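Consider this today:
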Amino acid sequence: MKVVLTGSQFEDFYPCYLVTDESLVIQGAGRSITKFLPELRHGDPLDKWLAFDRPVATPDARNLVRDRTPVQIRSIDGRLHLSGCVVEQSFGFVFCLSHSPGRAAAWGRLGLTVKDFSIADQSLAVGTAIGLQMTLMDELQETIGNLRRARDEATAASLAKSTFLSVMSHEIRTPLNGILGMTQVMIRDTSDEQTLSRLDIIQQSGAGLLAILNDLLDLSRIEAGKIELESIPFDMSEVLSGAHSAFTALANKKGLSMRLDIEAIQGRYIGDPTRIRQIVYNLLSNALKFTESGRVELRAYSVENGLEIVVTDTGIGIAPEKLSEIFGEFNQADTSISRRFGGAGLGLSIARDLATMMGGSIMVKSRLGEGSRFTVRLQVVRTGDPEPATDGVEDAPATSSLGSLRVLAAEDNDVNQLVLRTILEQFGVTATVVKNGREAVDAWAGQPWDIILMDIQMPVMGGVEATRLIRKQEAETLRQPTPIFALTANTMTHQLPEYEAAGFSGLIAKPIQVGQLLQTLLDMVAAPGSEPSG
C-alpha cells in the first residue's frame, strides 16, 4: 500500500527536513530549520548555511542514498546540530533530520519545543531531557560535595594557621621579653654613653623584630576577618600629634625636618583611633626609613564625608612601574630595598587594608629620586570641637609611692620571672612570684593583694582558669575584687574576649614595656579609694 503525506503531515514527521537537488541546492526546508535560519532561501547552496561533520567532505547526494550513509550537519553559526539520513524522491533528495541528542544540553538555550522534533523523536527527546536532568542533578550533588570538602579544608587550614600563629607568637614573644625587658632595665641603670648606645641598638633590633611579628599577626587577622573596628569618640589632633611626636626623635637623629600641619581638622571624631594611629605610624615609619635628607611632613585636611591625612617625604621615591605593586603583601618597590633599608613589606599592605575597612583608601604619587606623597582618605564623622585642656592637672604619683604595693605575680618561665622581678625592683616593688595558677589562687586566698599579674600559659592551672576561680570565690565570699592583669604573650584578637569573659581587669603584653607596666602600677595607687595593703 502506498502512503501519501500532505505537506503539513510531512512537517510533523520531519520538522527538520531539507530538500535539495542533486547539486545540493536547497529546494525547501522544514519549520525547525527556518526557525533558526530565517534568511535561508530556495536556490541557496546548502553549504552557504550548513556544513557536514559526517561525511567530512561535502558528499555526493546519490552516494548518500545508495550507501545509506548517516549524516551529521551543523549550521555555520554553530547553533544547530542535526543528524539523520537521505532518501531520494521524485521531487529531489530529502534529508530526514532531527536535533542531535548529543547536544541536548543546548536545547533549552536554543528554545526548542516539542514541535521541533519529529513524532518518532518526541519520546526520544523527552527521555533524553529526563536523562540529562538526572545527569545534571548528579553533577550538582558532586559539585556541592566538592564545595563542602573545599569549605571544610579551608576552615581546617584557617584554624591550623591561627593555631600556628598563636603558638609562634607566644614562643617568639617569650624570649623577646627577656631581651627587651632586661635591655630596658640596663638602660635605666647606666649612664655610660657607649653602653647606652649599644643597648639602644639591642632595643631597636628587638623592637624591629617585634614590629614584624605584630605585622604578621595583623595580616592574619585581616585575612581571617577577625579585626573589629571600634567606633568611639576621640580627638583627631591628639592621635596625629602623638604619631608625629613618636617619630620626631628619629627624624632629629637623621637630621630631617619633621613638620606637622593639622590645624584644619582639629576636633572630636567618631571612629577607631587605634587603627588610624597604626596607619599613620606605618606611613611615617616608611617615610623616615627611605628619606636620607630633607623633610617629612604630616598634614591633614577636611574633605567631603571625612578627612585626608597626607604624609610627604623627600626620600628615594618610587619608579612609576612599581607604584601598583607597593601595596601588595611582602612587596617592596625593589628587591634591593629590603637589603638596604630592611622591613618585610607588610606595612603598606596593612595600612591599605585598614583604610579600606574604614570605608577609605590610600593613594600614592611619587617621583624616583624626589620623594613620595601618600594620601589617606577616611570616612570619619566630626562630632564637635576639641575638649578644652584641663588646668592644674596633678602630676602622676612618684614611683616612691609604689613600695607599699602588694603585688602577686604568676609566671612559670624562670627568665620571665627574673625580668619581672628586676623591673619591679627598680620601682621599689617586691613581688611575690608563684609558678602556676593553682599557687596563685592559694596565695590570693591567704591574704589581700593590690594587684595580680597573671601569665596565661602555665602548668597545673592556666591563668584564665585561675582568674575564673578567683572571681567565683570573690562573688561567693563578697570579697572586694582584686585587679588581675593578664601578663602574656598570647595577644591575638580572638584570645582577648576569653580574657574579658574570665574577669581580667586588663592586659599587659609581652615583651613587657616598662612604661605600660609602670603606668598600670601607678593607676593602682591613684585609683579612688585605693589604699595599698600592708
Notes: The chain has three domains: 7-117, 229-384, 399-526. The radius of gyration is 39 Å.
